[in-house]
Amino acid sequence: MAIGTFVPLAIGTTAGKLTGVFLVLMVPFMFSSLFDSDAGRQSAQGSIYDFKLNALDGKAVDFEQYKGKYLLVVNTASKCKYTPQYADLEKLHEQFGQKIAVLGFPANNFLWQEPGSNEQISEFCVKNYGVKFQMFEKVSVKGKDKAPLYKWLEAKTGETPSWNFCKYLVDPMGNVIGYFGSKVSPLDKQIVGELK
Prior knowledge:
Layout: E1 6-9, E2 21-24, H1 28-36, E3 52-54, E4 60-62, E5 70-76, H2 85-96, E6 100-106, H3 118-129, E7 134-135, H4 148-157, E8 167-170, E9 176-180, H5 189-192
């Protein structure tokens, strides 16, 4: 039966003599697809090094340049309780920049905690946290308008960001080797341990 089908249900006198009551029958798994499903997990085509994405200043960044380095891909936001992680992301960049590239992707998916323009985001990051690691244009990391990179990451891991500051760790060969939730610090031993 299709979503939104109305079925007349006659209810007897013991139920208050209600007749002609219409119920909307929803199939749960079909209903959930209206929210954050890509209608099944997609296959991960190609390599992470195939991506060319715009930085906050609008200039294209070719991921080919990251071959041979670890990558930490993070969805960021300026008005989140995890926003102070910008400081640890910058510290990771400063201490291990020869081995890992920190890639920040501002996203407004969670309670609209990244409402600013790309220019405002750039100003916020530099002014408040001295960010020098690579930041990209604002994207969507979930839902029907999910950015291609995040579709690729989900296909590789089965994980999609549950909140701001979720992290994917990619090894120097381009393999996604870890997914870490918002609570995991960028300086956690699970991440830094890979770099030593």
